[in-house]
Write a structure and sequence with these properties.
By secondary structure, the protein is of the alpha/beta class. Helices cover 29% and strands 16% of the residues. Helix 7 packs parallel to helix 9. The chain binds S-adenosylmethionine (SAM). The site of S-adenosylmethionine (SAM) has 21 residues, from helix 4, strand 5 and helix 7. Specifically methylates the guanosine in position 1516 of 16S rRNA.
C-alpha cells in the first residue's frame, strides 16, 4: 500500500495553558513536567482562582490531572486504574461477557494479544488487560501520554492492580505511522488491532459528561481516523475492532463483518481470519 502522509492532516488537538503544582511539595515535579511539555509552570494556587476558560495540568497528590479553572469547574480528569469506575468494572463488570470482550475474541482461556492504537485514558485497555490480554497501547498526544504514564506508575503500588497493568505497555506513537512502518518491515501483526478514535463533537452536549469535555477539548476530533482502519487491515491481524457511538457511521464507510451493541456504543468487528488459527507473534 503506498504511504500517504496522513500526518499532514494535523490533529485537531490543544494543550493545557500551564502546569499547576498542588502545593510547595509538588513544585519541583511540576516544573520538570512543564519543561518536558514546554508549558509555563504557575505558582501554587487552587484551580478556582484561575480563569474559567483556562485548562491546566494539575500535579496533585492523587495523580496528574487535567483541570478546568474557575469556581464552577467540573472535577479533575485523571487516569485511575485502582479506584473509581475502573475498580468497579474490574470487580463487578461482567468479565468475558462484556461486549468489548466478545468483540476482541476473549473466550475461555483465549486472551488475544491486542494493539490498542488509540489508547486515550486507557480504560478499554485496562478492561482487556484485566481479562488477561497483553495490550500494547499507542498514544500520540503528549499530555494524554503523561496522564497514562502517571496512572500506570500509581497502579504499580497496588498489589491487586499491578499484575494487570504489567500486561499494558505504552508507547508514544502516531498509530498510522507505527502500523504502516511495522507492516512494511514485516513485523508480525498483533492478533487484534483495537481502534477507538474520538468521534467528531456532534452529540448533544448534555450527552458528554462534564468532566470528559476537558478531555475532548484536549484531544479534538481524530480527523485521520478513517485512514487508521485501512492501515490496520493492511497489516493483516486476525481482526480489527472499532468502537463507535451507537448511531455513528462505520469508520471509512466500510461495513464490518459484525457489530455488537454495547451500553454506550457499538463495536464493529472486521474479521480477517480465525483467532484460533493464529500463530502468536
Ligand atoms: C476516544 S480516545 C480513546 C479512549 C480509550 N479507548 C479509553 O478507553 O480511554 C482516543 C485517543 O486516541 C488518540 N489517538 C487518536 N488518533 C491517534 C493516532 N493516529 N495515533 C495515536 N493516538 C491517537 C487520541 O489522542 C485520544 O487520546
Amino acid at each position: 500500500m503506498p504511504y500517504s502522509p496522513v500526518n499532514s492532516l494535523q490533529p485537531d488537538w490543544s494543550f493545557p495553558a500551564a502546569v499547576l503544582p498542588y502545593s510547595a511539595e509538588w513544585v519541583e515535579q511540576a516544573e520538570a513536567l512543564a519543561a518536558q511539555l514546554q508549558l509555563p509552570c504557575l505558582p501554587v494556587q487552587t484551580p478556582d482562582q484561575l480563569e474559567a476558560s483556562q485548562q491546566v495540568l494539575w500535579v496533585h497528590p492523587q495523580g496528574l490531572a487535567i483541570q478546568q479553572g474557575g469556581r464552577k469547574a467540573p472535577g479533575p480528569v485523571r487516569v485511575d486504574f485502582v479506584e473509581g469506575a475502573l475498580a468497579h468494572r474490574r470487580l463487578y463488570g461482567g468479565g468475558a461477557g462484556q461486549q468489548i470482550a466478545k468483540a476482541i475474541g476473549v473466550k475461555g482461556q483465549r486472551c488475544p494479544q491486542v494493539l490498542d492504537a488509540t489508547a486515550g485514558l486507557g480504560r478499554d485497555a485496562f478492561v482487556l488487560a484485566a481479562l488477561g490480554c497483553q495490550v500494547q497501547m499507542l498514544e500520540r498526544h503528549p499530555v494524554v501520554l503523561a496522564l497514562l504514564q502517571d496512572g500506570l506508575q500509581r497502579a504499580q503500588q497496588d498489589p491487586e492492580v499491578a499484575p494487570i497493568t504489567a500486561r499494558m505497555q505504552l508507547l508514544q506513537a502516531h498509530a498510522y505511522d507505527y502500523m504502516h512502518t511495522q507492516a512494511q518491515q514485516g513485523a508480525p501483526a498483533p492478533q487484534v488491532i483495537y481502534l477507538d478514535p474520538m468521534f467528531p463533537h456532534t452529540e448533544k452536549s448534555a450527552e458528554v459528561k462534564k468532566d470528559m469535555k476537558a478531555f475532548r477539548t484536549l484531544v479534538g476530533a481524530d480527523r485521520d481516523a478513517d485512514a487508521l482502519l485501512a492501515v490496520a487491515l493492511a497489516w493483516q491481524p486476525c481482526r480489527v475492532v472499532v468502537k463507535r457511538p451507537r448511531k455513528a457511521p462505520c469508520l471509512a464507510g466500510q461495513p464490518p463483518s459484525l457489530s455488537l451493541e454495547g451500553k454506550s456504543g457499538r463495536f464493529d468487528v472486521y474479521a480477517l481470519r480465525s483467532l484460533d488459527s493464529a500463530e502468536l507473534p
